[in-house]
Request: fold
Amino acid sequence: MAACEKALLRWGETSITEIVMSRAAAAVNVVPFTQPAETVSGADWVWWWVDSTSAYGMLVQAKRLTLRQDRWRFDFGYRTGSQHANLSSAAASLNLIPVYALYLGTGDYRNWEPCPDDHRGRRCPSCVKRSISLMPALLADPAIVNDSATTYERSVALEELWTPSSRGAPLIPVLMEQMDPELIDFLLTPQTGARAVARSAIDRILRVRAGQFAAAAPPAPSIMRGGGHDQLGSVFPDLPSDTGHWGVPYFKHVLDPLQHVAPDYVLEIESREFDADEVASTMPEDVAGVVVVRLSQNG
Ligand SMILES: [Zn+2]
Reply:
């Protein structure tokens, strides 16, 4: 992005995604389904974050930042119709959380607008890390996400995604009463590996939810019963059914993809016993490939 900006070239989602994937391929398993030439703009990538006790899966779509004066804008595809809905339905069919990878360009491109992480003016390291930031699709409301503050608040730098959070998630007391002790422990103590990635997503959602709560009290939440405490399914089968202003049971939406064990296609990719065409045939059409990242549990 910096090289393009220097040459006054407009960078696009597809070329940046190709560069990210080529760099990632040196360290993690990347399985593309299509040749780069066929890759369509806005293609979705499946990302699995895996450690020895759990796995967390995302369906990721890239969106570049465009700036007009001080207004920040991402084309989340609400106006053109179905792209946003397609991402959500494809993610649901694969039990993944839908996420946007926001390509924010360099700090110069963003005029070094202050980030919330100990901002240090021009050349701020936290701002530099923000060049690729991940935002849960649930929070990608174009009417609200139109400046640096809301973009930063609702997203996390890709490089920080698996960093254990030193702060607990912002919890509404009435919701805590509905939670299993294991869930409360997960939300209030630092997590590592795949669980740290899941925490970074649910923390952003709960922060926005806490803000909503001030304006409107939700109906008394009830517990959603999942499929029992077996060692194969979701790490948290029983989750509060609160929907906030989204009309979506957001705990389930964000935390169901946190599984004790990754699905078979992920295990096959890691053991290099897979056929890319076969894996592709089980996925929706817009999925461009799968990335599997194995994380250390030491953070
Ligand atoms: Zn900064």
